[in-house]
Design goal:
Oligomer: single chain
Shape: globular
CATH topology: 434 Repressor (Amino-terminal Domain)
Largest sheet: none
Helix content: 55-70%
Distance between the termini: 10 Å
Strand content: under 5%
Radius of gyration: 10 Å
CATH superfamily: lambda repressor-like DNA-binding domains
Length: 64
């Protein structure tokens, strides 16, 4: 759910994975792992950074 939501939001905002990682202040490899589902439990700080880019709450990002 999280990986799918991030990917959809990223595409909706016309951002590449590299651009999103840079805007969020996370590493490209971290974002790749989250989007691919390899990292199913990113840190709260990482989720906060990604949600801030999209101006949404973390709950929305994780699909609650």
């Amino acid at each position: 759910m999280l990986s799918k939501n991030i990917k959809q939001l990223r595409k909706k905002h016309n951002l590449s994975q590299e651009q999103l990682a840079q805007k969020a202040g996370i590493t490209y490899s971290t974002l790749i792992k989250i989007e691919s589902g390899a990292n199913k439990n990113p840190t709260l700080e990482t989720l906060r950074k990604i949600s801030n880019v999209f101006k949404i709450k973390i709950d929305e990002l994780v699909g609650r």
